[in-house]
Amino acid sequence: MNNLNNKLHAKLRILYNALQLQLKLLFIFCFFSLQSSFANELIIKGNKFSDDEVITSLIGEIPNLDNKSKSDYILKQLTKSGLFKSVEVSYQNENFLLTVLEFPVINKIYYENNKRLKDDDLDKILLEFNIKTESDVKINEFIDELKNIYRSFGYNNIQIDKKIEKISENSSNLFLEFKEGKITKVKNINFVGNQNYNKSTLLSKIKTKTKTFTNIFANNNFKLFQINNDAIRLKRFYDSEGYINSLVEFNIEYFEDNKVIVNFQINEGNKYKLSSIEIEN
Fold first, then answer.
1. What was the pLDDT predicted at 238?
2. Nearest to residue 189, comparing CAs of 244, 158, 233, 240?
3. Is 9 helix (H, G, I), strand (E, B) or coil?
4. Dist. CA 189–CA 237, nearest whole Å
5. Could you give the CA distance from residue 1 to residue 220 in angstroms, rounded to a whole number?
6. What DSSP state is assigned to residue 244?
7. Could you tell me which residues are beta bridge partners of residue 129?
8. Residue 15: what are its φ and ψ, rounded to 5°?
9. For a tag on the chain, would you pick the N or C end, based on fewer CB atoms within 10 A?
């Protein structure tokens, strides 16, 4: 009986090992078939700085569509990467032929007329954007971020112009010229629709300030993000007072002397009170 069991176990082990070997061979065959198929599908030309593997990773997995749709997909993926000045995709001899023209490499970035933010400050921000080429996408993202930072300090008329200086066919310097302008000031703050709380009470709930005879040292710089936060603060104040359906909005009036008036529109709604508390077991 023991001999029979041993023979049975031996046969099962042989079958198990054979099955494992077949699965491994099948996996290897499929892997190399896919690799070969993928390699044969894409022929890349014109890339001097980006490796084929990088371009392939930008494309990702190509959907199982007709060849025209596949070509459109490849074109869209490479174009939105912002690495290429031009991309052409064609289908020839059962292969996709990709012809790319890369942006020149950025050698160095120079800043001009920047006073509020120093070069070292700008370089630290630049690290987040990894600008390596003349790609408009990344450069414009960098400029937009700088404008947002300047506006957070009250420089709402900030302008940043870019200029490219060619060093060679494949290399350039980027110049960013700053026109900071003057800090925008808050001239007045108005509240409309407040029936139960006066202006002085509401002013005490927000951080935006105006200069007055009694408050000449107030920081009255206009910061849009702070106005947004002030609207939230006013809403929370009304909620805490029982006006849970209140609405707070605002608009800004701009003047040629670089000053603004902030108008908060308030719809207080009804005040709710807690009438009773019931506890159920």
1. 97
2. 233
3. helix
4. 18
5. 98
6. T
7. none
8. -65, -40
9. C
Contact 224, 250 (CB under 8 A): no
- The owner of tokens 């709710």 is 272
Q: What is the mean pLDDT of residues 2-22?
A: 53
**Cα separations (Å) of 185 from 9, 104, 199, 252, 254?**
88, 42, 20, 12, 10
CB 77 within 8 A of CB 96: no
What are the backbone angles phi and psi of residue 181, rounded to the nearest 5°? 70, -175
DSSP per position, 199-217: HHHHHTT-S----BTTBTT
Closest CA to 206 of 225, 227, 224, 187: 227
Number of H helices, E strands in the chain: 7, 9
What percent of the chain clears pLDDT 90, i.e. is strictly above it? Answer: 50
Alpha carbon 89 to its chain centroid, in Å, reads 28
Paired residues of 112 in beta bridges: 177
Q: What is the pTM of this model?
A: 0.64
Alpha carbon distance 267, 193 (integer Å): 6
Q: Residue 24: how many CA atoms within 13 Å on its side-chain side? A: 6
Residue labelled with tokens 């870019």: 162
Say which range, 83-97, 146-160, 257-271, has the weakest mean pLDDT: 83-97
- Written as six digits, the tokens of 137 are 């996408």
Q: How many CA atoms lie within 13 A of 254 on its CB side?
A: 7
Are residues 220 and 185 in contact, defined by beta-carbon separation less than 8 angstroms? yes
